[in-house]
Amino acid sequence: MVALAQAEEEKEAAMELERAAKAEIASKSLCKNYGCAQRFKEEENHDTACRHHTAPPFFHECRKGWTCCKSKVAMDWEEFQQIPGCAVGRHSTVPPTNDIGLSPEQEVAKKEEAPTLKTIDGYNKSDEGKNAATGAKGFAASTGAKATLKIIEYPDGSFRCQNKGCQAKFSLQDNTPHACRFHAGTPVFHETYKYWSCCADKKKIDFDEFMQVPGCRVGLHWNGDGEAEQGIDASSATSSAPQNLPTEEVVEAGADGFDLG
Question: With 0-12 CB in 10 A as exposed, 13-18 as middle and 19+ as buried, what is 176?
Fold first, then answer.
């Protein structure tokens, strides 16, 4: 009986220790800094409490490492976990922005795949821009980063629409919420391709074909006064748009292109 009672006491003591350990864990917060994963109490937190990494881990083929410590690569998971942090600071409960990073090889491959985009101003200065048709050069100049819009009013009281990709001539009294189809993004000239940033899947080589790419937004014509309206998605506007819209007079580029500034 004595032995049985002693065994019960030892069992109860072990359970009490387990409950105390669980309570201790529950009272602590889990550090979310890269490579830490320690639990801490905020009252015990200080500026040198945590040794951690500053950037996310990468996993490429059989190798593992931290993007902030690219010279230290491990093959085994335990070796990876033992790579010491490169920074010291306070523990934190704020989750990191990125969970997984890129290995050095993946970063190189990504840079090689990424196209070098040419701005409109850069296009104008390139050989392609200098040798382009007058309309293309004028369009590039009018939509460049330094272009200054000005209201263009005709003698009959109508205006030229300044929405991107429109250039139609319109009168204020005939302007309706479905009168204009335009682009929400900006033109991009990449190598021989021309496209709108909002419609990157519709790339054209010929400038005239590029100018004919239908806009992705529908809304009011804009004469350049005040702020342009964002309009609505063209696909959602099809069913509700009036079916007999008046034909707009499109203003063609002159000898110097579309000079808006």
Answer: middle
pTM above 0.70?
A: no
Separation between Cα atoms, residue 52 and residue 84, nearest integer Å: 7
Q: Do 37-95 and 138-233 share a fold?
A: yes
Structure-token pair, residue 187: 């033109």
Structural contact between residues 44 and 80, judged by C-beta atoms closer than 8 angstroms: no
CB 41 within 8 A of CB 28: yes
Which residue in the block uniquely carries the two structure tokens 């519709």?
202
- E-state strands within 78-160: 87-89, 159-160
Residues 115-152 as b/e (b if ≥16 CB within 10 A, e otherwise) read eeebebbebbeeeebeebeebbbbbbbbbbeebeeeeb
- Choose the CATH number for 37-95 among 1.10.8.60, 3.40.50.300, 3.20.20.140, 4.10.1130.20: 4.10.1130.20
Tens of pLDDT, residue by residue over 171-182, are 998 899 899 999
pLDDT at 136: 52
Closest CA to 70 of 55, 81, 82, 51: 55
The CATH class for the domain spanning 138-233 reads: few secondary structures
> What is the β-pairing status of strands 217-219 and 232-233?
antiparallel
